[in-house]
Each structure stands twice: as structure tokens, then as C-alpha cells.
Amino acid sequence: MPMPDLPIALTCGEPAGIGPEIAWKARLELGARLPFFWIGDPGHLPQAAKWREIRRAAEAMTLPADTLPVLRHDFPAARIPGQPDPANAAGVVAVIERAVQLVRRGEAAALCTGPISKKALIEGANFAFPGHTEFLAHLAQVDRVVMMLACPGLRVVPVTIHVPLARVPGALTPDLLRDTIRITHDALRRDFGLTLPRIAVAGLNPHAGEGGAMGDEEIRIIAPVLEELRADGHAIRGPLSADTMFHKDARDGYDVAICMYHDQALIPIKTIDFAGGVNVTLGLPFVRTSPDHGTALDIAGTGRADPASLIAALRMAADMASRRGTPWQA
Fold first, then answer.
1. Is CATH 3.40.718.10 the classification given to domain 1-145+284-330?
2. Is residue 44 annotated as involved in ligand binding?
3. Per-residue pLDDT tens digits for 256-284
4. Is 270 assigned a ligand-binding role in the annotation?
5. 98 is in an annotated binding site
6. Model pTM?
7. Straight-line distance from the first to the last Cα atom of the chain, in angstroms, rounded to the nearest whole number
């Protein structure tokens, strides 16, 4: 198995959550087959973790398989599992910023982010973004990015992301829908090796509006955009009734499902593969993945944290980096 030229940068996320624990567990499982380094305070790692401080990202390529490479970033407060400390919020933000700089400078092949607590960041650092996705777009100076959730057998993209349900109809515009589909289409070709991605698009309303009887967004907004993109050569079906899009036979007919709001996309993927889903940000000038779960404060420190989603995220980052020109296989 070829070794990568560069390691993946993994941010610590919320120290009080399971991020430090699953980072160590991922290293134990992956070993040196998929080199990555963790950016954070080594005092926040589990007591049993074997780690070594590195000064440069490239040093992560040379460490033993049973040792976690750590790019040290000291925090002001100790880790208390399950209890976020506002004093650490600015450090969480700074680690993300540092990791983005490393990837953009070409010192790391891709970025994988540990789960953050938005509440803790707002309270401790006046965090002004709805989530990781929007913050990374800001750091990359990109006007629009797309959040995709992926697992074996299903990829989903919500057009509107962290928007209250009552505001979704107003937020859903032709430009937003068109850009979301185009960014998704281009990323599936570039980063996932699909020559002609098959795209299924859900309606907003029950039964995709049922010809206007249950809402007219499908007629006014969704269908015209899909017709335009079909004319441009995109392989698109829809708008479809969301309640029939996610059974096994339906999923076999497309490569990605475009959904109109957060839960319409996330409920099916978390039902199918709660532990192994991956969050991917499309439209950035670098590869970014993340485990598709939160900080799990309720089980932090208990030893029960499952690293499956993080491992899947690291592997997906490696695969995407390979298609962008880094010779990875993991």
C-alpha cells in the first residue's frame, strides 16, 4: 500500500467532548497506513494515549504506528469530560484557523475536523457562524459551499443547512438551488470519480407539492431550475416525493440526493449508518471532512466513544486528496 506524501490535519474540536478520545482510537486502528496528526492540547488526550509532539506536519509521516503525532496547541483550561469550559472556546477556533492555514500552504493533504460545540463557542468566543461549514467558507473566502453527508450506499446534500424550518421556504431560491446542484455535480466528478453523476432532487412539500395542491415551491422554484440544468447536460430527476426516495431500490438509482432542508437530508443517512457517516464540505479550495456526529458530551470520558465515523472521515479525506493529486490509498 503506497504511503501518502502528506498527512491529514485533524483538529481537536471541543475538548470536553469525545474528540480527543476518538482521535487516539483512530490512530490505534489506522496506525501508519493513513498518517494524520492531531492539533490540540496533549493534556486533553486520554491518559492512556501514547503521543509525540511534532514541530512540522511532515514529521507525522515518520512516527511509529502506535504513537499519535501531536502539533501542540496549548489551551488555558484542563479538560473535564462532558463539561465545556468557555475559557477553551477561543482555542478551538484558533486550532481550526491553524489547520486551514496548513492545508492551504500545502503542508497537509486535507483537513478533518473534530466535532465542536457551537453553544460553547458562542458563549466563550462570540462565534458568529452557524457551524463549521459556514466558518470554513469564511476562512477560505468562498461565497458558497455545500454540506454533503456520505456513507456507503447514500450521499445527501441539504440545500438549506442551519436554517429554522419556518424560514426554509423563504431561504430556498433558484440561485441557491442551482449553485448547490452545480457545486455538488462538480465535486462528485473531481473528488469521487463519477463521470456523469446521477442526481435525485427532493421536493420541499409533502408528495413534492402534488401539482400545487400542497405547496407551489416545486412549480415555481425547483422544477424550472432542474429543467435548466438538464438542458446543460446534468443527469437529474425530480422534484421527487421525499418519502419514497430513500428505500434501497430508490437509492440504487442515484449517486446523490439533493434535499431542501437539514432534517430531510440527515434523517435518512443517520438511520442507515449512524456510526459511519461522514460530513464533507464541497466547494472549498481544499478537502475537508468530519465525522457526522456531535461532541457526545454525555459519554465523554466513559471509554464508550466509537471512532467509526472519524475513521471513515479520514479515509474519505485520503481518497479525495488522491483524486486531487496526492497519491493516497488507505
1. yes
2. no
3. 999 999 999 999 999 999 888 999 999 99
4. yes
5. no
6. 0.91
7. 8
